[in-house]
Amino acid sequence: MPKIPISLQRIVVERAKGYCEYCQLPAAFSASSFNFEHIIPLIKEGLTTLFNLAYSCGGCNAHKKDKIEAPDPLTRQLAPLFNPRTDKWSEHFQWSEDNLHIIGITPIGRATVNRLKVNREGNVNLRGLLILANLHPPSL
Ligand SMILES: [Zn+2]
Asked: Ligand 1 center to residue 49 CA distance, Å?
């Protein structure tokens, strides 16, 4: 993994407002470190540019690996994974009524929820605590 210049890192964090661009976990309340994720992976000739970088929690990054598409669990057809640079979060995801779970509402959304496991137990538990502190869901 090539080193990402600090100047780029700063812009990526600011652009994401400190939240994972996939599961919206806030870095400020995460025990694990966040990553500067290549949306199109380097092995698929993705570049280390602002347009190809996303701020991602360690969990989403680990589950995404080098994938850019995954099956939509509803149709079983391959769908592109959510791209924070070209896709709008609210067009592909919504919060469950209790705000604990992310629900995919399009093939992209469902494939991403499933592949990145955005409703991991730790995420759901943290969302529950953040709700009690009036810090969730984030207003991004
Ligand atoms: Zn995440």
From this structure: 20
